[in-house]
Design brief:
The complex is a heterodimer of chains A (111) and B (118).
Chain A (H helix, E strand, L loop, with lengths): L8 E5 L4 E6 L7 E8 L6 E6 L4 E2 L4 E4 L5 E6 L8 E9 L12 E6 L1
Parallel strand pairs in A: 1-9
Antiparallel strand pairs in A: 2-7, 3-4, 3-8, 5-6, 6-7, 8-9
Chain B lengths: L4 E3 L2 E4 L5 E6 L6 E7 L6 E7 L14 E5 L5 E5 L8 E8 L12 E2 L3 E5 L1
Parallel strand pairs in B: 2-10
Antiparallel strand pairs in B: 1-3, 3-7, 4-5, 4-8, 6-7, 8-9, 8-10
Chain lengths: 111, 118
């Protein structure tokens, strides 16, 4: 699986958009970008995934650059409950291998 | 149940004792994963089961760790002769797995079992 690079921490004001970047410059053509988050003391939670097109669901939007070497997870209106560690993972979908979680980005949403 | 269920939620044991942690995956999920998370650290992959295939044990840190999955459903993670460095939250996840109508490859996690070795 391609390696990902994320900033260790970010802050965001409540109500503003949180834009979490992820670099995956060695991504291969059949690898998807997955985002999970882990709220303190809970198990990780799936947010969104994509291959090359931008994706949106009820939780977030995923913007993938045309060359697929980086992506951005957007929480359009961050709330205090969005404070969590956000993990960007690149993997062949359903490859038969476990997801490898890195250190992620610790997002702090402030009032 | 609707989600992945793990038990016990908390376990305190003495160094040298054996412990068993249980995971009940979502019904119909053929893939099951064990991870552990030490305080302030990321998730460390331990073992992965997919249907009737041989499990991927590449993440098990030592031969004191073992896991089994009976009947393709419930899984038990066993740690023998526990050490203080085994203290962590042990997380189980399940997914639809290969060959099924996989929509996203999404993993569903349980709330974890917090192990404290004194």
């Amino acid at each position: 699986d391609a390696k990902t690079t994320q900033p260790p921490s970010m802050d965001c004001a409540e109500g503003r958009a949180a834009n979490l970047p992820c670099n995956h410059s060695t991504i291969s053509g059949n690898e998807y970008v997955y985002w999970y988050r882990q709220i303190h003391s809970q198990g990780p939670q799936y947010i969104i995934h994509g291959l090359k097109n931008n994706e949106t669901n009820e939780m977030a939007s995923l913007i993938i650059t045309e060359d697929r070497k980086s992506s951005t997870l957007i929480l359009p209106h961050a709330t205090l409950r969005d404070t969590a560690v956000y993990y960007c993972i690149v993997r062949v979908r359903d490859s038969g291998y476990a997801l490898n979680f890195g250190k992620g980005t610790s997002l702090l949403v402030t009032p | 149940g609707a989600g992945v269920s793990q038990s016990p939620s908390n376990k305190v044991t003495e160094k040298g004792k054996d412990v068993e942690l249980r995971c009940d995956p979502i019904s119909g999920h053929t893939a099951l994963y064990w991870y552990r998370q030490s305080l302030g650290q990321g998730l460390e992959f331990l073992i992965y089961f997919q249907g009737n295939s041989a499990p991927d044990k590449s993440g098990l840190p030592s031969d004191r760790f073992s896991a089994e999955r009976t009947g393709g459903s419930v899984s038990t993670l066993t740690i023998q002769r526990t050490q203080q460095e085994d203290s962590a939250v042990y997380l189980c996840a399940s997914s639809l797995g290969r060959g099924a109508q996989v929509l996203s490859g999404e993993l569903f996690f349980g709330e974890g079992s917090r192990l404290t070795v004194l």
